[in-house]
Amino acid sequence: MLRIAVFLALALASAASAQQRKTILMITDAEGVGGVCRQDQTDPKDAEMRQLLTGEINAAVDGFLAGGAGDVIVWDGHDGSQTLSTLTIHPKARMIQGSLGASMLMERHFAAVAYVGQHSKADVRGGIMAHSFSSLGIQTMTLNGKTVGEIDVIAAMAGHFDTPAIMLSGDQAAADELKEIVPDAEMAVVKEGLGRYACLSLSAPAARDLIREAARRSVAKIGKIKPYKIPGPVTLQIEYTTRNSLAFEAQYRTGAEVLGDRTIRFKGKDILDVWRLYRSR
Ligand SMILES: [Zn+2]
Q: What is the pLDDT along the chain (281 residues), one digit of tens a residue?
């Protein structure tokens, strides 16, 4: 009987502490990883890229835990979520495979979000393999008139739920992009773009050391860095590429206005609203 009581007390205590644990959502991608400079390296099954990416992710997990995070959730965000494996991910991290959905799971109110392996938005000079969500499908994306890519949209969605973006690893162009909207976030610049497919990169061990330290320092900034918020109403405009021009039915989509063969505009009351309209088919 005593044993059962002790067990129940421990179970309740651990549930309570789980709520207070600082959980970090890590968004991962391939184009911003040190040593990844060519398009062929971004194939999800490329063994070397997987090793480079996993090494950077695990270094970041180490850093977050050393800095005081209680839980790190890693999203396999590159190309259809088929690049990471629970066989090689940090033993203390958990992993998400598959789509995060329109809200990007931010309604879970994570303590912070971080980016590992991040590239810059489309049309950035010196951005290694720069693109906004889809290099083949999307030419340009704007939010309230500002050109954006994954960095802004993810930071804004997190901010909508009062979660700050605290750290990024990637190329110089990606770091500059986050710095513009979250000046106090910790940056680990692992490579510099010398062109779209040319880069000056750190070695894998040096990149991992840099990332580990940036991640460790960033945890102390939770509560100090302001969540990034886009004031509503929010207009999202997307210009697709020629190979991805709009279907004729696009004009009937809720909240949508077709501006041309390749351009569509959505209006919503906030980022979550507009992103839901864009994502719903
Ligand atoms: Zn990407």
A: 445 555 455 544 443 443 358 999 999 999 999 999 999 999 999 999 999 999 999 999 999 999 999 999 999 999 999 999 999 999 999 999 999 999 999 999 999 999 999 999 999 999 999 999 998 999 999 999 999 999 999 999 999 999 999 999 999 999 999 999 999 999 999 999 999 999 999 999 999 999 999 999 999 999 999 999 999 999 999 999 999 999 999 999 999 999 999 999 999 999 999 999 999 87
Give, as residue ranges, everything with CB less than 5 Å from ion ligand 1.
29
273 C-alpha vs ligand 1 centroid, how far in Å?
22
How many A from CA of 59 to the centre of ligand 1? 20
Q: Rounded to 5 degrees, what are φ and ψ at 39?
A: -60, -40
Question: H helices of the chain, where?
Answer: 2-20, 47-67, 150-160, 172-181, 204-219, 271-279
Backbone angles phi, psi at 24, to 5 degrees: -110, 130
CA 39 / ligand 1 centre spacing (Å): 12
Give the angle subtended at the CA of 272 by the CAs of 125 and 65, to the nearest 5°: 70
CA–centroid distance, 132 to ligand 1, in Å, is 7
Query: Domain coordinates of the chain in residue numbers?
Result: 21-135+149-229
What is the distance in A from the centroid of ligand 1 to the CA of 153?
12
Distance between Cα 47 and ligand 1 center (Å): 19
The architecture of the domain spanning 21-135+149-229 is 3-Layer(aba) Sandwich (3.40)
The DSSP 8-state label assigned to residue 155 in this structure reads H
25 C-alpha to center of ligand 1: Å? 16
